Amino acid sequence: MQKLHLVIGGRVKDPQGLDFVDLKALDYVGVYPDYASAEEAWRGAAQRSVDDAEMKYVVVHLHRLLDPATED
User: Fold this and answer.
1) CA 20 to 30 Å from 63, out of 6, 19, 31, 38?
2) DSSP character for 24?
3) Contact at 8 Å (CB) between 63 and 3?
4) How far apart, in whole angstroms, are the C-alpha atoms of residue 53 and residue 68?
5) DSSP code for 23
């Protein structure tokens, strides 16, 4: 099974958490075939919004959602 990773971001209620304010306004950066390329995309997106404390980007391990038994 391919280890897919999704990079998304958006405005959060609390910079310490992951509660997004508006799910319809999420920025879908992309889906990547490995963690290294997802991390590179995450880093670029996060750097573009570094001055906005309410913007947060995350890497979602899609392969873990599709197959919870998958180990990294």
Assistant:
1) 19
2) G
3) yes
4) 32
5) G
